[in-house]
Amino acid sequence: MGTAPAATDLPLGATSPALCGTLARTQMGAMLSGGADTGVAGEASSNTTGMIALGGGLVLVAAAGGTYAVRRSTAKAS
């Protein structure tokens, strides 16, 4: 087995895959469509309103906590 001129430590088959054997056009008869069949059915959820409300509530709680901490620290400093 010969070696590639650019990389002398690699065999020619590693740097020239066409010399390893015949090249097949494809292994599949037709292109697949859809997602992978993993056996777990995904549920379609349209409960985005609840998630938005929960996220907004958490933001409000964080803002109120930050406001309280700032007011308390300025009251101590005075």
Helix content: 40-55%
Oligomer state equals single chain
Structural class: mainly alpha
Report the β-strand fraction as a percent range: under 5%
What integer value in Å does the Rg equal?
32 Å
Intertermini distance: 85 Å
Shape summary: elongated
The number of helical elements comes to 2
Report on the biggest sheet. Answer: none
Structure characteristics:
mainly alpha, 2 helices, 44% helix, 78 residues
Q: Can you give a write-up of this model?
A:
By secondary structure, the protein is mainly alpha-helical. The protein has 2 helices and no strands. The protein has helices at residues 12-15, 48-77. The longest helix is centred in the last third of the chain and has 30 residues, at 48-77.
Secondary structure topology:
Elements: H1 12-15, H2 48-77
Question: Quick recap of the structure?
Answer:
The protein contains 2 helices and no strands. The chain has helices spanning 12-15, 48-77. The longest helix is centred in the C-terminal third of the chain and has 30 residues, at 48-77.
